[in-house]
Amino acid sequence: MLVPRMIPLVLFLSLEGCAGCGQAAVCNLNGPINDPTNRTLRRQILAQGLGEFCKEMTSRGAPLRMADDSPVIGRYFASSCQQQALDSGDLLVKFDGWGFAWTNVSKKVTFLAGGTVQYNQDFRCADDNSIYAYFPPRQVVATTFTVKAVERAVPSPLGNWAQPYVQTFGQQLLTSKLREGFTVIRDPNGGIEFSLGILAVGQHPPRPFGLGSGDRTTVENARSDVHQNQRDFIGPIRFDSAGSMFLNVRVDGAPAIDLLIYGKGELDPFLHQYFEVAAAGAITVPPRFQAVVQGGVEFRQAVRLPAGTYYVVLDNTATAGQVAPPSHFLDDRAATVSYAIQIGDTP
After folding, report:
1. Average pLDDT value for the chain
2. Element (DSSP H or E) covering residue 167
3. Any idea which fold 217-344 has?
């Protein structure tokens, strides 16, 4: 359930703090930079950007999966983060935050979670100048996991049986996933991919859409299972100046879903409500953009947006948007949504 994608980490690999060592310049060292004996050099370069680690970790929600080839089943939002560079060159990170996920036992569950992890970081360059940053854990120092709200599938004569089950399961899964470490891939255009575990240079996590090369930055390229009366909140996504959000979306397993774009300030109270209350409540502010994505039909749209910060909401409820999903008693039918979100200049 809980797969803590630690951060988009857009800036920590920008290497802007090192004069003359932008991403292409570093990777054009090619063999020398990847040489196992040059690990000290790689750590010195990586350290130039690690000051942004916590800033990036708290800037965007992280998709949660059971495994890298599984659909997204929830989000984790880090609300606090502290980091420390150790004398050994390792990075010690302490983080806390909150999130939501879906399981067939609990339906929607919301939770508080955090941890302290010592990472043995390193990076390698691919032939296309992509940087593969590796964060295998030296040790998982501590973890915390507390259930906030549980939406059970049916009433039980045994009372609140789901909450202790989810509490134990979540704590164990959080610890096991943190022990896998993670890989962050930054392409030359600034696009970020994340994978649990350590990917070999040249490998990528599953991507439902082939987007090709270009000047657009990919925010996410993934699949999400959005169950009956549930939502997925992708973001926040920041535009430093006016530009366009490029959307590729395909829905399977449901007749249709609503795709909605909201400003962060407008949506934050409703995202907080989604965390506090088990049932999905209404979103009563109008979206900046809305569309109905029909099942089995690929949806493509460029949405012009002013400077600001936004969420993309995949909605499978009757309390926002135009779609009222059919209700199937004891037979939840998820909308599996493949989506790619990019940002760039307006064409």
Report:
1. 84
2. helix 162-178
3. Jelly Rolls (2.60.120)
**For the whole model, what pTM was predicted?**
0.83
How far, in Å, CA of 19 to CA of 188, rounded? 17
CB-based contacts of 155: which residues, under 8 Å, 6+ apart?
A: none
pLDDT score at 341: 94
Residue ranges of the domains in the chain? 23-196, 217-344
Count of other CB atoms within 10 angstroms of residue 282: 11
- Do the Cβ atoms of 212 and 224 come closer than 8 Å? no
Cβ pair 6, 57 in contact under 8 A = yes
Q: Residue 235's pLDDT is what?
A: 94
* Beta-strand relationship, 230-239 and 192-196: unpaired
> Are the CB atoms for 182 and 135 separated by under 8 Å?
yes
Q: How far apart are CA 271 and CA 253, in angstroms?
A: 25
SS3 at position 43: helix
Interval 216-256: pLDDT, tens: 888 889 999 999 999 999 999 999 999 999 999 999 999 99
Give the whole-angstrom CA distance, residue 92 versus residue 84: 5
- CA 119 – CA 141 distance, rounded (Å): 11
- Residue 43 region by backbone torsions, left for phi larger than 0, else alpha for psi between -120 and 50, else beta: alpha
What angle is formed at CA 204 by the lines to CA 199 and CA 210, rounded to 5 degrees?
A: 180
Amino acid sitting at position 123: F
Residues facing 255 on adjacent strands:
none
